[in-house]
Amino acid sequence: MTYASQTVIYWTLGLYLLEKDSFEKSDGKNIFRVVVKEIINMPLMAFFVGITILLMGIPIPQVINEFLSTQGGMTSALAMLVVGAIIYLSGLKKLRSLRG
Fold it and tell me: What is the pTM of this model?
């Protein structure tokens, strides 16, 4: 629930403030329509679909449940792999600790 609320709040306020400045320069598009279009992204939609399935008690087939569990288990390992690749590509010699 935290993800959904933070996403909606941050994207709404942030996009409103960004679009507010460009609204005067634009062709007069409705700011509300632009902000709502940007808020609705795939992770947030997947979150709401998952919550709906959970609250309605719709049974999930075992094959799909096992697949999603496997995907969820890979998340931490893939995140560490990506962070390691980013650190490697940025060059370890450029990273220095600042000692007083």
Answer: 0.48
